[in-house]
Amino acid sequence: MLLAGVAALGLAATATTAPAMKALAATTYGPDNTVTVSDGSPVNWLSVTWMTMEEADRVDLAGKTKPALADSWTWINPTTLELKLRKDVKYQDGTPFTAKNMKTAFDKVNDWSQPHPPGKFLNWAKGSEAKIKDDYTLDIVLPEPDSAAFMKLRGMHVPSNAFWDKLGFVDKKTGSANGHW
User: For 16-20, which contacts have Cβ atoms below 8 Å and span 24 or more sequence positions?
Assistant: First the structure.
């Protein structure tokens, strides 16, 4: 299984203590200390993504939204959310995380009619776009205000572009994600 989408920052950060987080932050990730997740159930692919891929934001133990792959965010206007992205992230395959990865994930997820097993409430509205401003800045432009934008970012996994090129969520032969993981 290709898990090139593992971002080198706080896997399972919400279950880690502050001293452990400091030790984790000092860790150098590479081929000798990667994470392999095995789940035999064809319907549990979502649990694999939660354990191996990072998102723009996370929810802390107090239930507050915190940046993860995003370093910060600003509502430019009621329909444009600017994300400043972390510059210190590399994927398991050594490629750097940039706004291009975020845009690719956004575009790929928006190509699906039902991308999220929990329901369409996690889908971005038709007409939503991700626009790259520079290597580490991305605008999410919405057709109307969306109070669930941060929840949707939390549900949008951002693997490396190699993941999309070589594997993806959907099996190209069967057209299904079921059993593909």
Answer: none
β partners of residue 72:
84
Domains of the chain and CATH, by start = 13-166 (3.90.76.10)
> Using an 8 Å Cβ cutoff, are 173 and 179 in contact?
no
For the stretch 145-161, pLDDT in tens is 999 999 899 888 888 88
Please give the order of strands across the beta sheet that includes 80-85: 70-77, 80-85, 137-141, 129-134
Distance (Å, whole) CA 156 – CA 165 = 18
Q: Which amino acid is at 85?
A: L
134, containing H or E segment? strand 129-134
Q: CA 155 → CA 20, 72, 172, distances in Å?
A: 25, 17, 23
3-state helix, strand and coil shares in percent for the chain, rounded to the nearest 5: 25, 20, 55
pLDDT digits (tens, 9 = 90+) for 90-115: 988 888 999 999 999 999 888 776 66
Asked if residues 35 and 52 have their Cβ atoms less than 8 Å apart, the reply is yes
Helix (H) or strand (E) holding 73: strand 70-77
- Number of neighbours of residue 10 by Cβ within 10 angstroms: 16
